[in-house]
Structure formats: structure tokens, C-alpha cells
Amino acid sequence: MAPSVSAEQGPTAVGTAYDQSLVWELYRMAIEASEKLGVDADLRTVWQDKQSQLNPILIGQQGQVKEWYEETTLGKAQAGSLPEESIWNFGAGGSANQGSVHRHTSQLVGLFPGTLISKDTPEWMDAAKGYDVLLASPRNRALEARLLRPHQLVVDLARVNLRI
User: Fold this and answer.
1) DSSP class of residue 16?
2) In which domain, by residue range, is 92 found?
3) Quick one: which of 3, 48, 107, 160 has the fewest CB in 10 Å?
4) Domain count, the chain
5) Is the peptide bond before 3 cis (omega within 30 degrees of 0)?
């Protein structure tokens, strides 16, 4: 899917995990609904074919879930056969972040709220676990719960829903 939008790198990128994951999830939901309702069998075949062409989760050279296809290592990218380059604004966000490993979590949408990254995809789960430092911020508590404490998340949800 191109062009895509990279939350970290600006207006366009060639394929981002965020866009690919969301489209994959939409196809999954449409396929499941079609099967359960017993409708649109012909469209379901098209959706399954298109979904199979997506590559939503890619693992980088450092074992990270890549935010976009050209990412090689943190702070570096390479497009096709061109030389690897430093990402011009990597670590942006003020003097506190200059040169730091400043990362967004948009590439983890397949973990939460999506279903791509799970115990059933251990390679992807291991790559997502590399972001545990980022998950410590309050805005990422749901990701932290899904990634690092799935059992506790289920227990907490049951307590809330069952009022126990």
C-alpha cells in the first residue's frame, strides 16, 4: 500500500505498519462477518486474496517492529538499492529527545487494538516486546497490559464487567 502516512516521518512513506495493519484488520472483520452471515462469498474470495497480499508486520535488523518499510535500524532507513541514510528528524521533539531513541507506537496497532500481534505470532510478539520502555507512559497502559500482562488484563476486565 503506497503512499502511506508515517506518524513519525511525515507526509508520505512507502508502506507503513499502521496502514497495512488497519487494512488487514478491516479485511479480517469483513471476511468473518461474511462467513457468519453466509453472504458475499464472491467478495470474500476477493477480500481474502487482497488481504494475503498485505505485509503488515515487518521485523527490522535490530528485531524491532518496523514502522515503515524502509526502516532498517533505529534512526536509519534505506530505500531500495540506495545507500542507508540517517533519518533526518529521528529523535526530534525538543532538546530532551535529541539523539535519544524516540519512538512512536503506531506500528503496534496490530497489537492493540488489532489482533495481528499475539501469542499466536511469537516472532511478532517478541519484536513488539522491545518497546516495553515506551509502554511505561500513561497513554500506553492498554498496550502495556496486552503485551506484558495479558492474564492480568483479562482478570481486570472480568472484575469490571462482572463487578467482582
Assistant:
1) B
2) 4-115
3) 160
4) 1
5) yes
